[in-house]
Amino acid sequence: MNASLRASFVLALIGAVALAAGLALGPVATSILATDETSRVIVWEIRFPRSLTAWLVGAALGLSGAALQGLLRNPLADSGVLGLSGFAALGAVIAFAFGFAAFAPLLALLFALLAAMLVTTLGWAARGPASLVLIGVGLSSFAGGLIALALNLAPNPGALADLVNWTLGSVEGRSLEHVALVAGFLVVGAAFIFAAARGLQALTLGEEAAAAIGANLTRTRTLVVLGAAACTGGATAVAGVIGFVGIAAPHLVRALAGHDPARLLLPSALAGGAMLVCADVAVRLLPTDTELKLGVAAALIGGPVFALIAARLASRGGDA
């Protein structure tokens, strides 16, 4: 068993334990095995779809982050930093704001795909980590400005409150329909990304060397872009904007699974899922009158992690 499979096995166990904790823990502690009607409703109709949604969203973000880092050969790349999450949120906000909520997943996917194409096209030409991050930050800021404009033009205070809560990121109140939606996007996105695994491995040699050994770079780029857009679009459409999971998960598992981008994909997905379930359990247990939004918690934890990673890279001269 290689290091990637060992890491995946361990992370799968951690994810299973986190999911079990997600069923039992909350403002009211409940046994998973309890047979009374109240406990059954709390565990299986409220907490089970919520925790499973959190795991799937985290897995989608972790997988897309690992794929984008491998494709762009940039350890700071992820769907949030590169603007995919922001554009996906913009698509969904437009759908919600103008009364087309049923089309929110489709618009989130299309806008995430648009952002992925812009970043990949511009970043591929720039070929520099700083340029890639700057392009992504620019796109994120642009999407943020448009989201603020959509919020400003919200038709009534109730709609405005709903949109603000949604953009903060949360899996509270999610149902099995949401589970099915994000799972479908994750399956499609994962199929694209894992089909590009050999190309990601070849890219570690550099573009010219990869092309020399027969790697189809256009196919690899297209598959990763489509896969990352599907994962990010589905996750954002269901849970709102949740940042830093995509950038943190690959870095956390790299010490266990190695630096091969293809072998980081599965462990990163499992790590992202476990991270977000743990974060969701934590926000439930915080003694606050209003439950902290999951996107806020991820930003409060992920922001310092991102800064530490950037500082570490800077001390190494930008080398991953």
Automatic annotation (TrEMBL):
Cellular component annotations (GO), alphabetically ordered: plasma membrane
Record-linked SUPFAM superfamilies: ABC transporter involved in vitamin B12 uptake, BtuC
Transmembrane segments annotated in the record for this chain: 54-72, 79-100, 106-125, 132-155, 175-197, 223-249, 269-287, 294-314
Protein name per the record: Putative ABC transporter permease protein
Keyword Cell membrane: yes
Family listed: Belongs to the binding-protein-dependent transport system permease family. FecCD subfamily.
Gene3D superfamilies documented for this protein: ABC transporter involved in vitamin B12 uptake, BtuC
Coiled-coil region(s): none
Organism: Terricaulis silvestris
Subcellular location: Cell membrane
Membrane topology: Multi-pass membrane protein
InterPro entries: ABC_BtuC-like, ABC_transptr_permease_BtuC
One term of GO molecular function: transmembrane transporter activity
CDD domains attached to this UniProt entry: TM_ABC_iron-siderophores_like (cd06550)
Record keywords, A-Z: Cell membrane, Membrane, Transmembrane, Transmembrane helix, Transport
A UniProt-annotated Pfam family: FecCD
